Structure formats: C-alpha cells, structure tokens
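We modelled the chain as a single entity of 501 amino acids. Its sequence is:
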Amino acid sequence: MNSLQHQPIFAEKQSTPAVSEETGLLSQQGKAFPFNHRLHSLQNKIVHFLGIIKSLGISFSMTDYDRRKLEIFNLLNFLNLVAGVIVPVTGLIQDRNLPVTAWIAAFAPPMISVIVLVLNYFKKHEAGMIAYFVLYPVITSVVYLNGINLGVDLFFILYGILAVFFISRISDMLFSIGLSMVSYFMLSVVLKNYVYKLETANFGLYLFNQGLAILLIFYGLFLIKKENTDYEKQLLNTNNELGNINSEIQEQKAVIAEKALLLEQQTKKLEELNSLKNKLFSVISHDLKAPMYALRNLFQNVQQHNLPGEEIKEMLPEVVNDLNYTTGLMENLLQWAKSQMQVNTVFPQRFDIAETFNDVMHALRLSAKAKSIDVENNFSKPVYVYADKDMINLVLRNLISNAIKFTPEEGRIFISATERKGAVEIEVKDTGIGISKENLEKLFREFYTSNGTSNESGTGLGLMLCKEFLAKNEGTIVVKSEEGKGSVFTFTLPVVPGNEL
C-alpha cells in the first residue's frame, strides 16, 4: 500500500523538469513576440513616413511620369537632408577647429534640402529644382574658392547626373550640367592650393564625404534606372491594354459592319417585297377585273339578248385569252404567297421532267392551238432530276407560256433536255419577237412586262419566281435573245441530292 501511495509523487517529481523547460520556452517566445511586433510596427511607421515625404507637392493634375519624378526628387532631398545633418555632427564630434566657412558649407546641404522640400510642398516645383541644382553647386564653389577643400567634389557629378533625369527643359538641363561640370573641373583639377584640406585635417570625415557622394551617385542612378524600367513596363502594359481595346473595337466594328450590311440587305429585301406587294395589289385590283367583266358581259348578253351561237363563238376567243392570263396569274400569285409563307421550305424529290412537261402542255395546249404554234420536244425517254416538283412545274409553265405569248401565229417552240456533268440542262427555244439588250439586263431583277404578239398582257412576276425557285433547288437560269430572232431560256437542275452546280 505504501509503495502504491508513493508512486504518484515519484511520477510528479519526474515530470517537473520537462514542465519547467516548456515553461521557459514559452517565456522566451513571449519575450520575442513583443520585440518582433515592435520591429514590424517601426518598419510600418518608417514606410509610412517615407510615403509622406515622397508625396510632398503631388497634385491630381500631374501626369504619372511627373508624379514619379517628384517622388524620387523628394526622396533624394530627404536623404541629402539626413546626410547633411550627419556630416556636420560628425565634424563637430571629431574636429571642432574647422573654419567658419567650412561650418557654413557643412550646414548648407541640409538647409538647401529643407528649402527644396518646403517649395515642393507648396507646389513650387520649378523653384525647388532651381534651388537644388543652382544653390548646391554655387555654395560649394564659394567654399572651395575661399581655400577650403571639404572633399565633396564628387557631388558635382551627382548634380550633373540628376539634372539629366529631373530637368525637362533642354536649356535649363544644359545650364545645370555645365555649371556642375565646370565647377568640378575648376575646383578639382585647376585649383590645387587650398588653405584647409579635409583630407589631411580629418581623413575619416573626408572618406565619409567621398563614400557618401559615391553612394548617392549609385543610388541616384539606381532610382533613375528603376523608374525608367517601371515606366517602360507601365507604357508596355498600357500599350497592350490599348492594343486589346483596339482589337475589341475592331471586332465590334466588324460586328457592327456585319449587322449594318445585314440590316441593309434586309432593308433592300423589304423594299423589294413592298414594291412587289404594291405591284400585286395593282394586279389584283386591275388585271383580275378584266376577265371577270368579260365573263359577266358575255353571260349578260346571252341572258338578255338571246345571242345566236355564231356571235357567242366570236366572243369566246377574247374571253378564253383573258381567262388563260388570269389562270396563269392566279397560279403565280398562289405560288409566290406559298414561297413567302414557307420561306426556304423546299420538298425535293426525284422525278421525270418529261412527265412534268406533258402536264404543263396539257394546261397550255389551247393557248398554243389558238395561235397555231407548234410545240416540239426531244423527250424520247425519261429524264430524271432532283428538285421540288411543284416549283419546277411552275418554272416550265411560265417559260413555255411566255414562249407562246411572244411567238407569232404559226411559230415554233422547241423544248429539249440534256444531261451535262451530273446535271440536266433544259432549254426552251422559240421563234418569237425576241428581247432587246436593254430589257435583258433587267429581266430577272424587276417587273418586266410586255404585251404579247396577240396583245396578251403580263405582270413580270413569272420570271422572278422562276429564278427564285431554281435557286432554291440548286439550279440556274440564263437567257439568250435577239430582237426579231426569238429567245432561248436555259435552266439547270441537279440529278442527285446535294449536287452543287
């Protein structure tokens, strides 16, 4: 029992060093944490303070490039101010027997830097530039001319380098560089006899001045190089952004141009449809009335006057002629309306065009017989095409009807079909009155109307439908004609599906 009671005490004593070690580690970490926090806080304060110094005198109206130059200029002046305070303080500690002129020269740089920063703060940037690039060289030269060499001649080179970057006006830049370089040459090369030389009086302070000058020269060059690199990157990024924006603008212009072209095409098509609509209304309101009135007059005369058969026969040809025109017109109107409602709807199939020709001639035989016109063909065997049968029926009917219309009595019409390179070429040739060159140019583009050899009228809608229907069936149509020598209308159709002509 006693041994068991002492075990926990023993275990507790064994764990005590580990606990104390861990406690010590936590204590050290706790002490390190406030130090790191204070260091980080100090860094933030320094960065914030330098940001305030760099932003002295900056306005929203300045360009980005000018703003960057002013920030560097402010930072350099602040560094000159710090260095300018260190130099006289060091001299005061190490050598209190310096001449009065030397003390003036030692305290001049920080005073000039203060003046420049104050001028920049009040946005007197040009005055700040003049104070920096004129007062520094002039005061230093005055000190050297009084026989005191403080070992700051390398600062003249610094002023010349900085003048190239900070001064925009060429004349002012050349004046500043000239002043610095002439002063350096005269004071460092020409004048050698100085009453007081810091190099011999206090070599350590002399080395500090030389080192500070070299450090500021390299730091100035670094800032200038960094600024130019950043500015070039910014220009490159801006140029890339402008290039992307320009590409987007060009794409938008292309889209707008495409839409404008499409809108123009749609507008043109609407104008054509509106013109066609007006023409159709004119046809419906005028041309369809004539045959109706002719029929009404015929039946009224038969009813009221009990006309004999001979007189009725004399009136019938004119009535039949009007009815033939009306029938063709109604067919064209119905097909046009159907094509407009169904737009691009085509129902192609493989069929024998010779049978379609026979169907068309069955409907037009009376018109041909009335003018004693002989219609011939070369369909000795089936000729198969791949197209919409109803549309091609209308094409054949319009072309043969026109041939009958413009062929004098006892004329001749010949229809032939020939296979050529996977397509069928159908030709409708007549011995009619022909078409002039002027009318050939507008035959399929607008309403071309002309009275036939027996004064048959027309609307011009048939040939437009022929061209439209053939195009929908991958076909083409051409015409050759000469006045007084007849016309030849030739159209083509594919013989297999998807055959491009």
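As a brief sanity check on the tokenised model: The beta strands are 148-149, 196-197, 348-352, 374-377, 384-388, 412-420, 423-430, 476-481, 487-494. Confidence is low (pLDDT under 50) at residues 1-15.
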